[in-house]
Design goal:
heterodimer; A: 143 residues; seven-stranded antiparallel beta sheet; 13 strands; elongated; B: 148 residues; alpha+beta
Chain lengths: 143, 148
C-alpha cells in the first residue's frame, strides 16, 4: 500500500478513447445514502439509525486546459464528439477513473456527459474549462 | 531563459537597436547586465520569475514569465522615451521570439509599470544615470520534460 498524489490519475472514456484533454483536476465524485431514523418513543440515549437501501452517485467534474485543436471536428480529441453522436446527445459509455500507481486502482461504470463549459476567456491566462459526467449505475471498483 | 529571447527580439527591432547601439561588441540590449565598456543608452532585461503549468499527467507546454526591462539613459525623458519604444513592440505582442524562434509568445502584457529611477554614478562625480523600468508578463511555449 502506498500513498499517491494526483499525478497520473486519469478520467477516460471507454468508447471515445481519443478524447484525452489535459486534465488539471478531477473532483466531485462520491457516494451518499440517507440514514433513516428508526427511533421511537421507547428509544433511550441516542437516536437509532438504519442505512438507506441505495447510494446516490455524485457527478464527477474534470477541469481541463482548452486547446483550439479540440474544436476541430476532424480531430480525434474533438469536444464535439464527446458531446454529440450524430447530432444527438452522446450515448452512455464506460467511464473510468484511474488512480495511478504500480497497482493502479480503477472505478468504472457506464456514464454520460452531463455538461461542458469554458471558463471566462481573459487576457494573460490560459483558457480553461471543465466537463462533467454522471455514472449511471454501480461502479466496479478494482485494483 | 525568456529574457534572452526577449533580448534577441528587441535586437531585431531596428528602431531600438540603432538607438542603443554602442559599437562593436556593445549592441546595447543585454540580458542580465551590461558588459563593462558599454557607453550610452542601453536596455537591461532580467527574468523575475516563471510559473509552470501542469495537468495531472505532467507539465504542459506553456509557462508564464515576468521579464523586467529597464531603459537607461542620461536624462529622465530619454530613458522614458526608450522605454516607450520597448512598450511599443512588447505590450500586446503575439508571435515568435528568439534568434531561432525558440519560444512562441501567446500574449505579452505589462505586469507593472515600475516607473522612473535615478542613481549617481559609481565614481561620485555628480553625474546621474536615469532609468525607466517596466515588468512584462509573457505566456509562452516551453519544451516539456521527457523524463527520459
Amino acid at each position: 500500500m502506498s500513498l499517491i498524489t494526483g499525478r497520473g490519475c486519469t478520467l477516460t472514456m471507454g468508447t471515445l478513447t481519443t478524447f484525452a484533454p489535459k486534465i488539471t483536476q478531477i473532483g466531485g465524485f462520491g457516494w451518499s445514502r440517507p440514514s433513516i431514523d428508526t427511533s421511537y418513543l421507547g428509544t433511550t440515549g441516542c437516536r437509532t439509525k438504519k442505512g438507506g437501501d441505495l447510494y446516490d452517485l455524485d457527478p464527477i467534474t474534470a477541469s481541463i486546459f482548452i486547446e483550439p485543436d479540440e474544436f476541430a471536428t476532424t480531430n480525434l480529441c474533438s469536444i464535439d464528439d464527446v458531446l454529440y453522436d450524430g447530432g444527438n446527445a452522446a450515448n452512455a459509455e464506460n467511464m473510468t477513473l484511474t488512480f495511478s500507481d504500480s497497482g493502479a486502482a480503477t472505478m468504472v461504470a457506464s456514464g454520460h456527459v452531463t455538461g461542458f463549459s469554458i471558463d471566462d476567456i481573459v487576457l494573460a491566462e490560459l483558457v480553461t474549462g471543465s466537463f462533467s459526467i454522471q455514472w449511471e449505475d454501480t461502479p466496479t471498483i478494482a485494483e | 531563459m525568456i529574457e534572452r529571447y526577449v533580448r534577441d527580439y528587441l535586437r531585431s527591432v531596428a528602431a531600438i537597436s540603432n538607438r542603443v547601439d554602442g559599437g562593436a561588441n556593445y549592441p546595447g540590449i543585454y540580458a542580465g547586465n551590461a558588459p563593462q565598456g558599454h557607453e550610452g543608452e542601453c536596455l537591461i532585461m532580467q527574468g523575475i520569475n516563471s510559473d509552470h503549468n501542469y495537468s495531472l499527467t505532467g507539465e504542459v507546454a506553456d509557462r508564464e514569465s515576468i521579464v523586467q526591462i529597464t531603459a537607461y539613459s542620461n536624462t529622465a525623458s530619454t530613458a522614458y522615451s526608450l522605454a516607450e519604444l520597448v512598450r511599443n513592440r512588447m505590450s500586446g505582442y503575439k508571435g515568435m521570439m528568439g534568434d531561432n524562434d525558440e519560444t512562441n509568445v501567446k500574449t505579452c502584457i505589462i505586469q507593472t509599470d515600475v516607473g522612473a529611477d535615478i542613481e549617481e554614478t559609481a565614481d561620485a562625480d555628480d553625474k546621474f544615470i536615469h532609468s525607466y523600468t517596466v515588468d512584462y508578463l509573457l505566456i509562452h511555449t516551453t519544451p516539456t520534460p521527457t523524463l527520459a
